[in-house]
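Q: Protein A?
A:
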Amino acid sequence: MPELPEVEALSAFLTEHLVGQVIDRVYPVAVNVLKTYQPPVTALEGRTVTAVGRRGKFLVITAAAPDAADLHLVIHLARAGWLRWQRKMSDVPPHPGKGPLALRVRLADSTSGFDLTEAGTKKGLAVSCVADPAEVPGIARLGPDPLDPAFTLEALRGLLAGERRQLKGMLRDQSVLAGIGNAYSDEILHAARMSPFKQAARLTEAESETLYRAIGDTLREAVERSHGLAAGELKAEKKTGLRVHGRAGQPCPVCGDTIREVSFADSALQYCPTCQTGGKPLADRRLSRLLK
């Protein structure tokens, strides 16, 4: 799933390639990805892209027209969605079918544009066309952005206070912090040398400062690694940059211990016992005992 660093990189890539361009056609190939219907996504046609930004894991493309209010194409790529930039796009309109193509945007002054695709049978890709991004429920409920200068150590301590959940679950909750998902929560906790099952409210002042630094450093490093990459290169870069997530059975790059995994119904976390849990492996089941 694309998380904050990948969406930030996509935003930068599209800013370079889209801003100033006129949208010629919008083809909603898979109607189920559309989460709003008024205005229709075709209302973007003829408008000029003026900005591309990110809200958590959401990509926001802003398009303007003379004497009309801005419209925003809001995209959430979910687990298996992706944006594919096309330098040469066919003149033939795409037809609905069983393939991965969900939506196509073609630019007016060239044959370029982008496709939104989604693999697999479990569909979560979401596209909205709105007058205000805050109209999208997922954006309206977002917590603070961890890369926003306003997100301070005191702000994190305020979020931790009274939080009865485990750190892993808290970091992934978009209403608590915007943009962190399964992969980077594993990376952050490894960098902080903390158990994913440690209760958030039990962190000491020193531990909360360590976690704060791990959040910022991990995300900024990932954004820096992705800087300047084309959209098609971001997935591969994310995999190569991860230290523990997705690397169960491999040696920890810090201490050499074997990276372990805890599996759940629809996801899994990875961690290093030596670095994070005092050398104790966690039980691989949903009701694993919390480590203090």
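Q: Protein B?
A:
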Amino acid sequence: MPVSKERFIQMLKEKGLKVTNQRLLVLEVLAAHRDAHMTAEDIYELVKEDYPEIGLATIYRTVQLLLEMQLVDRINLNDGCVRYEIGETFGEEGKHRHHHLICNTCGKLVSFRNDLLEDLEERIERETGFCVSDHDLKFYGQCRDCKKKESVEEHTEV
């Protein structure tokens, strides 16, 4: 569900942040490209379409601030790039977002929106007293398209 500009303004104010065009544009770009897992450079390229005078350093500062305020999440996929996405729950503590499926063949990244670890987290807390506030889970394998392509290639080689 897309988030309105008014909701972004409300979110920024609730976090005690000044409402600026840069902050709104970064949030809007991330919301519009929810499954893109964007780098700061990706965000910059899209923001500068509407705000050409913006600099890359401003994007980095804005993303860092929004990250600290728990309005966006940082994703490290071990590919040398830090990526960002708007949180599913927009900063609500104790809420999990989603997991990531990463294709080892083509590098495609797919979001998996089902948190299956709630029972495990409850067990961890019960047995150890450790209260899990969040987790980050990545699955590595082969996507449907690459698997299909590989299967076709195997059959044509015969």
